[in-house]
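Throughout our pipeline, every protein is held as a single compact record rather than as scattered files. Nothing more is needed to write down the fold, since each code stands for a local backbone conformation. The record that follows is passed on verbatim for readers who wish to inspect the format.
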Amino acid sequence: MKNSLLLTLATAATAVVFIAAKPATPNAMTTSAETAAAPASVYDFTVKSIDGKEVKMSKYKGKKLLIVNTASKCGYTPQYKELEELSKKYGNKVTVLGFPSDSFNQELASNAEVASFCEKNYGVTFPLFETVAVKGDAATPLYKYLSDKTKNGKVSDAPSWNFCKYLVDEQGHVLKFYGSKVTPLSPELLADITK
């Protein structure tokens, strides 16, 4: 009986090892991993507001988005005034989202300083977010998505300087990239927003 019990235990242990060692179907694993890792739109991202609160980008569904990498000590910093004007005049069509960045070494030291600067100097009321990197390997996931055509399907431009802009449609898909020189109230940008 002792030998019979040992044989039964040995057989059960072998079966457990065999089941544990059996690999999962590679296609099933790859597909679910790729699906989880590949955002379908801007709405799949979560970012942090300038005061550190998590914000789901899906909160902005239903209107176009103008996503701008901003800076407080740049020759283009006065564009904050036009961004605020755009936000007020065309707020029924587009939501302006400002992402302060020190990627070009022209941002203030803290988020609190940025928020205070924007409010005091330009009366900014549109949403601002935590200071982020917008180019290269250090870029935040949202900016990696915005600047990679293989991910967003439309645009392959990364910000080359402060105040570059991405226009996103009402479904969260990237439509167009604008360089720093294209001002928020330029005829080109307004035409694309009001289409």
Remarks:
- The beta strands are 46-48, 54-56, 64-70, 94-100, 165-168, 174-178.
- DSSP finds seven helices and six strands in the chain.
- The radius of gyration is 24 Å.
